[in-house]
Structure formats: structure tokens, C-alpha cells
Amino acid sequence: MYQMLFRKIRGIEFPVVGMGTSRTFDVDESTPEVFSIRSKIVEECQMNGVTLVDSSPMYGNAEKVLGLAIQENDPSKFQIATKVWTTGHGSGLDQIDNSFSLLKTEYIHIFQIHNLVDWKTHLPTLTGLKEEGKIGLVGLTCMTPSDYPEMMNIMKTGKIDSIQIPYNVINTRVESDVLPLAEAMGIGVLVMEPLQKGKYVKDLRLPPDLVPLSDLGIKTWAQALLSWVISNEVITSAIPATSNPKRIKENSLGAIQIPAELRDFVKSETERCI
Q1: Which domain holds residue 50?
Q2: Residues contacting residue 116 through CB under 8 Å, at least 6 positions apart
Q3: Which of 101, 115, 134, 242 has its CA 20 to 30 A from that of 210?
């Protein structure tokens, strides 16, 4: 029987496959047919162990929609990650308070400084909230390789519990320096864009060969790509987004560690097919 894999950040367990909400949850919650799909996505997350859900004020209405959808399910089953994305101490406090309100929770498992924006202001605020027991972990997100040196310097302060970066079978930039530093410092790693926004699934020129992976239970290329990501044991969780409830179970079945030779195969096969 399938079981989700878990990895720890500072002693807290997280599933190796979670869910992002960028674009996909930025919808009008007052439209029943639109909201019901998001509620069904969250229900599927709960049923399939995909219980780490990531959002941000940057994602429009996503925090509100996610909060409402979690309330329609079992909030105790979920681990919420979100972000602060503004400048200034007062504005940061207001945005953080608003996130708690929109997400309908008194505790957020991972609170991240989005793209390092005004991190010198927000880091003490988040550290204080962690000490008060209102958040579990303090994190950073960083999308742009030119900002990685700054992110790494912040990581070296010892005040960071997790980072969120882009990483996938083609975009391996973080392997040379960011991931080794995270491993050395015991910092968790959440992965955005593990499927490159679906590009390496939907936009392939050629159909990839799944036969060498079939004995492991991998039936789709999305599962192959997710298994490639999480088979790097420095990675805590890959968090693909989706607007299709059926994708949640499919993604959850990508929580499979594959040996190095099959990881190499997935990479070469993706390169052949793009």
C-alpha cells in the first residue's frame, strides 16, 4: 500500500510532496463552481497525504481561498506555509496579521520572507513570532540566481530554518552551492517549479519512455519528475501547483525515491524529449 514519505525540518515532519497555490488559487471564492474545485483539491490533498500547502500575499486571493477550503476539510491535517512580501516594519506586521486572518489559523508552520524583500526588517519579526510559538519555522524564498549569494549569506546567520527555491530536472543551478550549504546547516528545502510550471509534462516534443520506471510504480512523467526532485535527500518537499483535483493523487504517487541510475535516466530522457 502506498505511503507518503516524510522529511524533517528542525524536528518537524513534512510530506515530500506538497502543493503550491500560485495562480491556481487566485480565484473568486464567491463563485460556487470555481471555489468548489479548490475545495475538492484541498480534500484530495488531505486524502493523499499532500498536507503541506504553500501560499503568499503575492498570489492575489490565494490565501483567502486556501483558508476557506481548508476549513471545509480538516484543518488539523494541514501544515501551512506562507510569506511576507512588503517593505517596512508596520506594513510587515499588518500583512502577517492579515495572513493569519485569511488562512483562518492561529499557527503557521513555515513563515517565509518572499524573494528576500526587506529581509533585515522582517527576520527579527518572524524570529519573535517563532519564539512566541505563533509560527514553527522561519524561511526565505528566492527565485533569481543573481540573488543566491545574498540568500546564502542570510542562511549563514543561523536564523533560517528553510528556503524555497526553483529546482527541477533541467534547472539544477542550486546543486553547486545552495543545496550543499542547506545540507551543512540543517536547513530545509522546499522546491517551487518542480515541473517547470508543467512545461516538462505538457510541452514535450516527444513522449518519454516510462518503461524503466514502471516497476517502481511510476506511471506518468509528472511522477517521474517529482521522484527525480525528491530523490535528492537534501530536498524536504516539492510543491507543484494544480487547478485539477485529479492531479493531487497523481502527484502524491511521485513520492518515490529512485536510485541514481534511474535519476540519470529521467534527466536524459527529459532532455531528449523537450
Answers
A1: 8-199+234-255
A2: 140, 141, 142, 147, 150, 151, 154
A3: 242
